[in-house]
Model the fold of this input.
Amino acid sequence: MFCIRDEEVAKKIMKIRGFALDEVYQDEEVATVYKKIAKDEGLLRHCENVAVLSTMVGIGYGFNLAELIEIYVGALLHDAGKVKLNKKILYKVGVLTKDERAYTETHTTIGYKLLKNTSLSNVALEIIRSHHEKIDGSGYPCSLEKKEILIYTQIVTVCDMYEAMTSDRCYRKALSASKALEILEADNGINKVVLSLLQEGIVESSVDKTQEILFA
Done:
């Protein structure tokens, strides 16, 4: 897994996390969805880690506090739609069929619909709906291109992919940080500036160390 290379950045992220959670709990509907995410330990860990990584990259871009909170909230809830999916398919061991893959991909629009009438900002909602879009138009659900995808969403996309690849999944063991970064470097659908900021800000670590530094 990872830890944040700069201790001061890690401390800043934890403060932003506090503000973001306050925002989540201020809206009963949003809080209910977050609590459902929290019931799935693996999903919660993934969402928390993506939020941390995305905020770190946002700091590298020089975003202001309000923007960083929006990034954290959006990333924290980016997979909210998965709480509505069939867990047998979502956590299937083995290769998904074409229909199963299409079914799991609906989590982006499901999450957006689930939260669109809440107090969440447009930025957070776009992150939820579009975090699987690619800047070359190869993503889903709308095959958007770079100019149509918010930079905040592009950040979460890269961090989501990195975190997923470097974590154990039911169908495979975690990849090393170097292997994950190699795969991302070859992906023409992601923002390479985001990737470089991600790579600069992290150092590979054990899960225990990550939890100690980031979520104490």
